[in-house]
Amino acid sequence: MSIRVVLADDHKMVREGLQLILNRAKGIEVVGEADNGRAAVELVESLAPDVVIMDVAMPELNGMEAARRIKAGNPQVKIIGLSAYQDRAYVAGMLDAGAIGYVLKSAAGDELVQAIHAVVANQKYLSADITSIGPE
């Protein structure tokens, strides 16, 4: 059975790149794409994916608020924050909103696949550059 994934990022090229990466991975199926946070929340309601790859900064509804709304209505959905920002405030904001993973856009595609498998197994996943930040 495939892991069903929704991609949420306001940049079409990023979504297309993620789609290519995930289509190469065995056992992962991209079932939908959203270009803003509000559309991501609606897609999760209609498609019931296992995982949402959520950009932190998006129009209409940012990734943190979209994640909060998704988790409120669909607590079983695993959310991975995806961002160029490795700042503590963004990482903590996504985790507080219900994300169980956070991957930097500078990471390799294989890392995103690894993160998907980790969160589906109920394990927290943070890119290595984030875990090295530590407490303030």
Which homologous superfamily in CATH is the superfamily? Response regulator
- Structural class, by secondary structure, is alpha/beta
Radius of gyration: 13 Å
Placed side by side, the strands forming the largest sheet appear as 2-1-3-4-5-6
Please state the overall shape, judged from the principal axes of the Cα atoms: globular
| CATH top level label | Alpha Beta
β-sheet strand percentage: 15-25%
Distance between the termini: 42 Å
Under the CATH scheme, which architecture would be assigned? 3-Layer(aba) Sandwich
**Largest sheet report:** 6 strands, parallel
**Low confidence ranges:** none
CATH topology: Rossmann fold
H/E element sequence: EHEHEHEHEHEH
Oligomer: single chain
User: Please, how many domains?
Assistant: 1
Mean pLDDT: 93
| Count of helical regions | 6
| β-strand number | 6
Helix content: 40-55%
Describe this structure in words.
The chain has 136 residues and is of the alpha/beta class. It has a single domain (3-131), classed as Rossmann fold (3-Layer(aba) Sandwich), CATH 3.40.50. The chain has six helices and six strands, in the order βαβαβαβαβαβα. It has a six-stranded parallel beta sheet with strand order 2-1-3-4-5-6, with helices on both faces. Helix 3 (63-73) packs parallel to helix 4 (88-97). The protein is globular.
List keywords for this structure.
single chain; 136 residues; alpha/beta; Rossmann fold; six-stranded parallel sheet; 6 helices; 45% helix
